[in-house]
Amino acid sequence: MLFIIATPIGNLDDLSIRQAKTLAASDIILAEDTRSAKTLLDAIKKRFNLTVTCSTVWSYYKEKEFQKLPEIIDLLKEGKNISLISEAGTPLVSDPGYLLVKSCVQRNLPITVIPGPSAITTALVYSGFNPQEHMFLGFFPRKESQIKLLIEKLKKIKTIFPDMVFVFYESPLRINQTLHYINIMKCNFEIVICREMTKKFEEIVRGPIDELIERDYKGEITVVIK
Question: What's the whole-model pTM score?
Fold first, then answer.
């Protein structure tokens, strides 16, 4: 059985008992970051007093997906319980796993999704915008031409769906540049920047875009625009 397991986006107290039990009893854990996986397994032992029988954690990031796929499929066919986790949040959502899940579906191999924290829905609620119509954009593009093209597309979508809210991830190294392009293209978007959600230094920033551009940002960033 393949288990797709969402994990805390920052605060380990958000770990559920179902997530903990499944990870503890897995034969193999596929982890985008093996260090984060070790921290998670240590937290399971301390918080839930569970015996962690899983001793095999494989590094499983985007560049290794195709390479490891045949071996993982064979192990699933043998009846092994394999859990997939990303560094934080829900696997496949801007993280590795799509190729594996697609292959399992094609081969009728069983899959169980264990839901949990999501930076997308958390940021939507924090924004104060109506979340009924929203679109997730993944990570914003890096190149200026691609950024401008995407912003033009978002403006067109707003003419068709005026209540649409957009959510995307951004690097702290690029967020100011992205805000700059949004500003010069006169989008008239309302913007909320959610930083380090659920962590000690969580910060939700609202205000005029001229002020947002001048701030310094660190950590994990999710942006909501309306």
Answer: 0.89
Write out the two tokens for 73: 């499929």
Tokens of 165: 């809210």
Q: Domain 2-114: give its CATH superfamily.
A: Tetrapyrrole methylase, N-terminal domain (3.40.1010.10)
Domain boundaries, the chain: 2-114, 119-225
Residue keyed to tokens 């594996």: 100
> Strand, coil or helix: what is 4?
strand
Written out in words, the top-level CATH class of the domain with range 119-225 is alpha beta
Alpha helices (runs of H) in the chain, residue ranges in sequence order: 17-24, 34-48, 65-77, 98-106, 119-127, 144-160, 175-184, 209-213
Query: How do the pLDDT tens digits run along the chain, 226 residues long?
Result: 999 999 999 999 999 999 999 999 999 999 999 999 999 999 999 899 888 988 899 999 888 888 999 999 999 999 999 999 999 999 999 889 999 999 999 999 999 999 999 999 999 999 999 999 999 999 999 898 999 999 999 999 999 999 999 999 999 999 999 999 998 887 888 999 999 999 999 999 998 898 999 999 999 999 999 9
